[in-house]
Write a structure and sequence with these properties.
single chain, five-stranded antiparallel beta sheet, about 325 residues, nine-stranded antiparallel beta sheet, Beta-galactosidase, Chain A, domain 5, mainly beta
Length: about 325
């Protein structure tokens, strides 16, 4: 593990946290580099079936939200407002009239405090951020922590923890753009999503509240199929199949030429597939879009005295000959 920069410095009465970069490697050639700015994964080197490594995530300097943690609420909140316990809250509108990925200055645009760690078989970095009451319009002071753990099983484990002093919506996600070939586009990547249904959205990507089957639609990824086989781009929330709480398999990506694979496991109810740029695909594990305004969706409200806990595992591997 490599760390750059001092822990912090003082500027008068204000503590300024510098941007740091951490590199974590495991015994099998998997290497993750993360920065404290936005808790962002800036590169992820993974070996192919021949052992050759390539960066399988896109750079954050080119793509919005690339590699960052987004929040306080990922995805869209209709008309940048919601009601909570009889009080109307107005959020920052940064997607036309709507609120997207935490607003104008979401969690992807702040410097997180960072603490690296290592023990036998694992290494990583824990990042924390205090979101003040009223930031981007959200109620309550939120203490958020995200931990990246790299294991010798080639798993990148993302653990989320948050507490609040007032009821508030919380919906955090990791926004890496994956490209398992390391170059070119992802239209030939084979994708499987364990979801029988999706949340229906209107022309502005806001959920109508309806949930419909994927059968017979371009959103049917229940069996592996090339990302670009049915349409050029996706921006859609899938309802992850589950029979109870806990970690479940949500998606699998395979790149036939390199042999690299990625399996996604999550405790979250939804998975947003985004392929707005054909160079990469996002598999954002999260609550459904506009959850604070949709009473029939799983609740994204965190109450004082309780904890927001979520886990997503990105498991990397290789297949045999293509």
């Amino acid at each position: 593990m490599w760390r750059a920069g001092p822990a912090r410095r003082k500027a008068g009465p204000v503590t300024i946290w510098p941007v740091e970069i951490f590199t974590v490697r495991n015994a099998h050639g998997l290497e993750v580099r993360a920065t404290s700015y936005g808790a962002t994964i800036v590169s992820l080197l993974a070996p192919d079936r021949e052992g050759r490594r390539a960066n399988v995530v896109l750079g954050f300097e080119t793509f919005d939200y690339a590699g960052a943690i987004v929040g306080r609420c990922a995805n869209r909140i209709a008309h940048a407002r919601f009601m909570l316990e009889g009080t109307a809250y107005r959020l920052a509108a940064n997607d036309g009239p709507h609120h997207l990925h935490g607003g104008v200055k979401g969690f992807d645009k702040v410097v997180w405090r960072a603490a690296p760690f290592r023990s036998p078989g694992i290494a990583g970095v824990a990042l924390s951020y205090t979101s003040p009451d009223g930031e981007e319009g959200y109620p309550g002071t939120l203490e958020a922590r995200v931990t990246y753990t790299l294991t010798d099983r080639n798993d990148l484990v993302v653990d989320y923890l948050a507490t609040t002093d007032k009821p508030t919506p919380v919906n955090l996600t990791q926004h890496s753009y994956f490209n398992l070939s390391g170059a070119g586009d992802v239209l030939g990547h084979l994708l499987q999503i364990d979801a029988d249904t999706i949340t229906v959205v209107d022309d502005e990507r806001i959920p109508t509240g309806a949930i419909v089957p994927v059968a017979g639609t371009p959103f049917d990824f229940r069996s592996p199929i090339a990302v670009g086989a049915r349409r050029a781009a996706y921006d859609q929330n899938f309802v992850v199949n589950r029979s109870g709480a806990g970690l479940v398999h949500a998606a699998r990506v395979a790149e036939p030429v390199s042999g690299r694979t990625l399996d996604v496991h999550t405790t979250e109810p939804g998975l947003q597939l985004y392929t707005g740029n054909p160079q990469g695909l996002c598999l954002e594990t999260q609550h459904y879009p506009d959850s604070p305004n949709q009473a029939s969706f799983p609740s994204a409200i965190l109450a004082p005295g309780t904890e927001y806990r979520s886990r997503t595992v990105f498991a990397f591997g290789v297949t045999g000959e293509g």
